[in-house]
Design a protein that fits this description.
By secondary structure, this protein is of the alpha/beta class. It has helices at residues 15-25, 34-50, 59-79, 84-99, 119-126, 154-166, 185-199, and strands at residues 4-8, 29-32, 104-107, 130-139, 146-148, 169-174. It has one domain: Rossmann fold. It contains 7 helices and 6 strands; from the N terminus they run E-H-E-H-H-H-E-H-E-E-H-E-H. Strands 1, 2, 3, 4, 5 and 6 form a 6-stranded mixed beta sheet that branches. Helix 2 packs across helix 4. The radius of gyration is 18 Å and the shape is globular.
Length: 201
């Protein structure tokens, strides 16, 4: 049976970086995201109303549409007690697992632990997965104090402490960039190597 990893952390914590590094360390890593189905559900509306494809539009356009995505996602979550998006993704993952039993599945956007059978419950109990929580920090120049990336909105501010508490594994990693501004993957890879040891212990 393939392993399932769920990744949590506020925007900017490094979830995509974690996935990239994990893919470099392990073979056959497959990305899934709960928000992909949200985008698919709303994309026909965006195309009809605005002539926009949410999957290919520029970031500036996506930022304008984000409040609609958030509102719709929240309505679906409330009406299903947090199960609408996880139910949809369960079907996709089960189909993929049947064909690729040895692959590692990474769900890159675990965000909620509010309802009794919310995303954390789904990942850990139904998918038998491992929840990884990421926090990214940078150093204050004057006194070298660690400053963690803050939640960008009230929703993440309220939910992130619950995700930290529920996590099976926590990573606090620095902001490390090369002189050209790109991410220094070699410096961050050690954190992912340690996680893979934990995963296969």
């Amino acid at each position: 049976m393939s392993k399932v990893i769920g990744v949590a952390g506020v925007a900017g914590a490094g979830k995509d970086t974690f996935l990239d590094l994990l893919s470099r360390n392990l073979p056959n890593v497959k990305r899934f995201a709960l928000a992909d189905n949200l985008k698919r559900e709303l994309n026909p509306f965006f195309k009809e109303m605005y002539g926009v494809d949410i999957f290919t539009c520029p970031r500036e356009t996506k930022d304008l549409l984000r409040p609609i995505l958030v509102a719709h996602g929240k309505m679906r979550r409330i009406s299903s007690e947090g199960k609408h998006w996880t139910n949809m993704l369960t079907k996709e993952i089960e189909e993929y697992r049947a064909a690729n039993p040895d692959h590692i599945i990474v769900v890159t956007d675990i965000r909620y632990d509010f309802f009794p059978k919310d995303e954390v419950h789904w990942l850990k109990n139904e998918m038998k997965g491992t929840l990884v929580h990421l926090r990214r920090w940078y150093q204050e120049e004057d006194n070298h104090r660690k400053i963690f990336v803050e939640p960008p909105n009230e929703d993440e501010r309220l939910n992130d402490p619950k995700l930290i508490k529920a996590a099976n594994y926590r990573i606090e990693w620095p902001t490390v960039k090369k002189d050209d501004g790109t991410i220094d993957y070699n410096s961050l890879n050690l954190y992912v190597e340690e996680f893979t040891k934990f995963l296969f212990r």
